[in-house]
Design goal:
The chain has 87 residues and is α+β, with helices and mostly antiparallel strands. It has four helices and three strands.
Length: 87
């Protein structure tokens, strides 16, 4: 089980509408449970985000880092890390 820190949970709660039409969580506890259920991943930098999508078989070869960051399943965290939530 992955432990999601406060920054991850708060960012997801504030920005979950970028991926889902309705809120899927309304408390940090619900957000943590949801992220665990979908096996969300926290990446330390954009290279890790790119590696994650490459390993998942996504065709991102022509995408710039900015285009990758703009994907709805990628949440930018204030610390510079990224949360990837596959809806």
């Amino acid at each position: 089980m992955y432990e999601y820190d406060e920054e991850v949970l708060d960012t997801f709660l504030e920005n979950q509408s970028q991926l889902f039409p309705e809120n899927v969580a309304d408390t940090p506890e619900a957000a943590e449970e949801f992220l665990e259920d979908c096996m969300a991943v926290v990446c330390k930098n954009i290279k890790d985000v790119r590696d994650y999508f490459d390993e998942a078989g996504a065709d991102i070869s022509g995408m710039s880092d900015d285009e990758l960051i703009e994907q709805s399943e990628v949440f930018s965290l204030p610390s510079g890390r990224f949360l990837i939530v596959e809806g």
